[in-house]
Amino acid sequence: MEALCMTGMLLHMSIEDIRKKTVPVIPMMLWGMAGVILHLYFGRISCERMLGGLITGITAYILSIATHEKIGKGDAVLLTVTGIYMGFWGNVFMLWLGLVLAAAAGACVMVLSDKDKSYELPFVPFLFAGFLITVLCNGGMPT
What we know:
Blueprint: H1 2-20, H2 25-42, H3 47-66, H4 73-112, H5 124-138
Helix pairs in contact: 1-2, 1-5, 2-4, 3-4, 4-5
């Protein structure tokens, strides 16, 4: 059930990020509350693991402030919510995969088009791809 919610959330947020270059925070918070409720009901992940998962997003939020939003605050909130679903290590692995995929896509964009290094790619679709790879590698949601 959690994987279905994460897939729905990341698909929704990917579409918003591509279309509007922004990630809506209120729907994301609702997805986060759903994640907490699911974990409390099904007991798949402990409260400590959920809190550990929040660390990735909180760190990204602090970096967003420190870098004057070179990292979007919406992306940081999204990482906070995905941390609720995946725990710390699952979230870090998904983030790492998303960064690698975004870097590869950015390099391709720079080489194959006239865009320069200041061109901004939407990041959430790469997180979504990272999530799908994480689930495939784990044979399900990370625990």
